[in-house]
Each structure stands twice: as structure tokens, then as C-alpha cells.
Task: structure prediction
Amino acid sequence: MGSDGKVMSKAFSYAFSSAFGAWWFLLGAVIVGLVAWAAFGSAPAWLWISTAAGLLLLLAFEFFESAKSAKLKEREAHERSLVTAVIERLTDAVITYDENFSITTINSAAERMFGLNRVEVESKRIDPSFAKKTVFRALTQVIFPSLAPSATQISDPGAWPNVVRITLEDPKRQLLVTTDRFPSSGGFIKIAHDETSEQSAIQTKEDFISVAAHQLRTPLTAIHWALEEIVKEAKEAGSNQILATAEEGLKTSERSLKLANDLLDAAKVEEGRSVNPIETFNIKEIITAAVEEQRVAAERYGVSVSVDAADIRVTGDKSSVAMAIFNFIDNAIRYNTRNGKVDVSVVDAGDAARITITDTGIGMSPEDLNRVFEKLHRGSNAIQVEPNGSGLGMYIAKNIIERNGGQIGVTSIPNRGTTVWCTIPKAHA
Result:
């Protein structure tokens, strides 16, 4: 059978579908009309033939139009069945409803999440008063997030899709709810992803890291002090072999202690515990203290550090700001070159103090520069210089600066050096 024959065969296969209802009615009317005209009317043969031919052409045209409509409906039904099958297989809860908040579909995951049977809710109009009914409370709070015990807007207000994180009670759950529209029908679709187990796993991991780092810091500090004492005594005794071994152990203990401290600092930042009550302080004092704290390390790395800091009073969490600046200076020293330099400056930038740390070190590639504030990311050249770094310093510093109302930025050229700048809001007079 040729292609035309296949088209005709397919068209005739639609002939008894609902799309052909109007065509069958038209066919019946044409037949009755022609028979009545032939039986009771009188007209020239040419008029009768031309009228019959015109009606046949009309029927043929309507036949193929009806076949197209039937094919389109068949395709839409097939697509709907595919979409329904996909939605049904999703592990996230999916709810669709019209502009009157009447539920049109829920999948099996939604049934399990809300403890409801689709027969109970499909075609039911949900309004805010349903939140008073225990059986419908969770579903109603997902449809109307403002009714949930806690709701945090994730997407921009008024933007589609709309994303909000809500907390439900009895049982306590955290859901990420995404809502989008069906422009053609005016309806909506909601996808609710249960983050409870994920958040629990993340919290367990973070608690473990925090506890482990805290437990390690005390013995590491003791080891560090002991090695410092051994280095001091070896120098006084002139024992070069013991001195070399002790100094190597001291470097290892410093790296281990810094890693433990970085892990604890990162945990504090993520939990929001690093920001203490706001106070007013002189940023120059913080800079001077940080440079003095790094003096021994700078000597060991053969790096000179210069400071040009204006006396500017700022507001913020003094201890966390000091931590961030310490990290900046520490990186500038560690990833510098022998006989390199670090320049630290503080200038008045209007509403803020602008702190700049410039080094003559190894720099960063454009790819690493784009990821400099990512948690645990370290540049390939940084790994070669300092294999045991944590990759947390810049991540911690960025969080601290921004939580204190400041801004931060980095510029760098490979093998030429890096400049880190940040701002801290000035104290009001």
C-alpha cells in the first residue's frame, strides 16, 4: 500500500471517534437533503449535479479536518498518558490544581507524603480553612505556604517558578516546594521535595566534623607547644639533628592544628555561631595584631610584611573580622615566593573601611579565581606549594565579611601575585 493509501487508511480509522460526530451529522443532513430534493424538487440536471459535487467536496474537506482533529486528540491523549506515567514514577510529591484551587491530580508520592487517597482530594476545592482539619493540614500548608509554621522564600518574589522552603509539624518535616503555572489552562503544578532526611544526614555529618575537630584541637595544641619547647631547647643545646626533626614535626603540627581550627570555624560560620554581638573597634588594631601573630611564620617563609593602616573605627563582630583578616594574611604569606612581600593597607572608603592585602606570590589561574570562595576548593598550584591545606580559609572569610555587612573581592595573576580586598562598615559618629 502506497503512502496515500496509508494516509487514507489512517484517516478512516478515526471515522468512529468522537471528533467525527459533527461530520456524521453533516453527512446525514446532506443525504436527507439530496434525497428530498430529488423526490420533491425540480431543477436542471446541471444544477443538481453541481450542488451534489459541491456537497461531496464539503464532506471530503470536513472529513479530513475531522481526521486531523482526531489525530491531534490522540496525540494529546498519548502525551497526557506519558506525563501521567512520569509524574507517577517521581519520588517527589506532585499536585496539580486549577485557578480555583480544585485538585486535579496527585501522584502516589503525594498520597504517601500527606497520608491521603487521591479519591479523597481529586476534584476537591482546597481553601485556607482546610488547615484546621488535621487530615488536610499538611496538604493545605503546601498549597498555601504562608499557613505553614515556617516559610522561607527562595526564588525572587513574583518570579515563576516560585520556590519556597517550608517546615511542617506533626511530624516535623522540611519541604522544598516548587510551584509553576500552566499558561494555557490557568492551572498550577506543585512539586514538594522532602529534605528532612537529607538535612538530618547533613547535620549528623557536620556535628561529627565539629566534635572530631574539637576533640583533636586540644591534643594538637599540646603537641604543638611541646614541639616548640623542643625546638627552643635544641637551638640552645646546638643539637642540629634534633632541631631538624623537631622543626619538621612543628610544621606538621601547625598544619594539623590549622586544619582542625578551619573545620571548627567553618562549622561555626554555617551554623551562624561565628557572629557575636556587634561592637565598635579600631580596624588598625586588628590588622596590627594579625600581622604580629604571623610574624614568626613570615620569617620562616622569608616574606616581609608591611602595613599602612589608617585609624578607622568600624562596627561588626570583632573576633570574626579578626579571623577573616588573619586568613587573608596567612594565605598571602604561605603562597608567596621566597623573599616575597605582603602589603596590607586600610583606607577610608566613605561608609566603610577598605582593607587590601597584596602579595607577590604564586597567584591563581582564571579558573581557580572563579572558584576561590568555594568550600574545599584549592588551586592546582596552591596544592603543589601546600599539599595539606584545608580549602576552607577563603570560604570562611567570605561568609564572615558578608555577615558583617561588608563586601569582598579578589584579583590575581598567575606567578605575579594576588590582591584580596574587603570592606567593613564604619562606626557612626
Remarks:
- The two ends are 93 Å apart (CA to CA).
